[in-house]
Specification:
By secondary structure, the chain is α+β, with helices and mostly antiparallel strands. It contains eight helices and nine strands. The protein has a five-stranded mixed beta sheet with strand order 4-6-7-9-8, covered by helices on one side. It has a two-stranded antiparallel sheet with strand order 1-2. A two-stranded antiparallel sheet has the order 3-5. Strand 8 and strand 9 form a beta hairpin. It binds zinc ion (ZN).
Length: 248
């Protein structure tokens, strides 16, 4: 067990998908992480991945870049959450749509790339995130991470967290970082933050670019996370796709 103290400037969200309560308040001061850091191992993508009809996004389109934050210690828990998962996997039809998004982005902005922060996330990892918040009452905990019992489109490879890299390989400034749970990360509150001068025209142009290219293939942005896009509704996902419980 280790203790993580959240700084105010880097309050983070456990990317909880479509059921985040927009009224969520400030992050807890102290969280506990219950998993141990382990050495990464090469992912075997011949069994579970093919069985679940998952596709390595970069095998479809090498112009899409990947930096899985949960496969590193650069995440809200400060530990490696993905012990074997080192690639961005999505359902095949979802990955094909994302590949078209990259094609559209390349047309609009030559040299720009999608950068994926998270894609397929097994329930077991969602559980680790949930367990890390075990000092909170369940209602409060649900504001920071989806209850793993409810499943998430990430668990099916039908949601993606991403941003855009410019022609110099620099992530566009969205006015809030990845996994930032402050309301300034909420697409639903952009107008207010623009009016207050806390989001600039550059931030908004960058967010609009991401939103527009993703919408071109029917991805739906979560209203509390500028970086999270669902390929379909959770109900549709549960009908169409299998839920992955463990890391491949
Ligand atoms: Zn997400």
């Amino acid at each position: 067990m280790r203790t993580i103290i959240f700084g105010q400037a880097f309050i983070v969200l456990l990317c909880s998908c479509a059921d985040v309560d927009p009224s969520k308040k400030a992050a807890p001061k102290v969280l506990k992480a219950s998993s141990q850091q382990t050495s990464p191992e090469k992912l075997k993508d011949t069994t579970v991945v093919s069985q679940f009809n998952l596709v390595d996004v970069q095998s479809l389109n090498k112009d899409i870049f990947v930096e899985l934050k949960y496969a590193t210690t650069d995440n809200f828990m400060g530990i490696i959450l993905y012990e074997r998962l080192k690639k961005a996997y999505l359902q095949k039809d979802v990955a094909e749509r994302l590949s078209k998004v990259q094609g559209y982005l390349s047309q609009l902005k030559p040299g720009f790339h999608l950068l994926i922060y998270d894609a397929l996330r097994p329930v077991s990892v969602q559980q680790k995130m949930w367990d890390a918040l075990d000092s909170l009452p369940p209602v409060e905990r649900g504001k920071f991470v989806s209850n793993p019992k409810n499943r998430s489109l990430h668990n099916m490879g039908a949601a993606v967290d991403l941003t855009i890299l410019d022609q110099n390989g620099v992530p566009l400034d969205m006015g809030a970082g990845y996994d930032d749970i402050r309301q300034i990360a909420y697409p639903s509150m952009e107008k207010q933050f623009v009016a207050e001068g806390k989001l600039t025209t550059v931030h908004m142009a960058n967010r609009d670019l991401l939103r527009n290219v993703m919408k071109s293939q029917g991805f739906r942005q979560l209203q509390t996370e500028w970086w999270h896009f669902n390929a379909c509704s959770r109900a549709e996902g549960l009908l169409k796709y299998k839920v992955l419980f463990e890391e491949p």
